Known about the structure:
Layout: H1 3-8, H2 21-51, H3 56-59, H4 74-82, H5 85-116, H6 122-133, H7 141-150, H8 157-161, H9 168-178, H10 183-191, H11 196-207, H12 209-225, H13 228-233, H14 242-250, H15 260-293
Amino acid sequence: MSATETRAQPAPTVRAVPQTSGARSRKALVYVLLSAGLLAMAAPFLWMALSAFKTPQELGAGPPVWIPTEWTLQNFRDLLAKMDVGQAFFSSVLVAVLVTVCNLLFCSMLGYALAKLNFVGKKPLFGIVLGALMVPGNLMLLPQFVMMSQMGLIDTYTALILPFAAGAFGVFLMRQFMMAIPDELLEAARIDGAREWFIFWRIVLPLVKPALATLTIFVFLGSWNNFLWPLIATNDPDKYTLPVALATFATDPTKADGSNGVLMAGAFLVVLPVLLVFILLQRFFTQGIATAGLK
């Protein structure tokens, strides 16, 4: 056969294998189960968000009314009138932002040291980090309270920030991502005269942006929703974060007055900043989770 005849032959086509009825049934069943799971997870949030805009009549209606027929902002007005939302919001933002920034800085620095530097005690230190991952957080509440009390930091913002300025999960996450950075890249920078801080700040951190975004979401979410420690460490209402202030408001009969709509409006305000942070960092978060799955 000549070369001309060989080139004239059409390329083989790949035909899609038709799915059997059993495969289609299994695929449909998977979709149904996933949809049911999504509905079960989203239903409480949707009910809370929609109830924040309902009138008292619709909140107490039976059968329950999902979508308000008359949208109202009166629940938010009552909440702002009865509760110092601005001060609680400021406390939550201050604590969550500073805790997140501290974790991004300290966890990435320690993760870089454990991943790319050689020093005495490196392996035992990493073992301590792994051991700290296995310790339940609630177990540390009493030692943390004793330490903060002896340092005279109870009822201050420092007491809400310092115990969570760095976490074992963040160190482990950053270390695992930085292990994937080629050592040759860092050695080339050292040969060119770059110092470790320059390498860390200008080379390593830009390469681990997905990990930083993932850590930002986890830390901000955990700090923003933290309830037990702020409740223990603060007695001054001016230092209350939003979850604590809302819980205190809900248990005060002179303020809440059994109004579910006002409580739903408060819960909606607590959740809203977390949703905004996740939406802004969703692309990096998805990339970080996908990359972590390939390691």
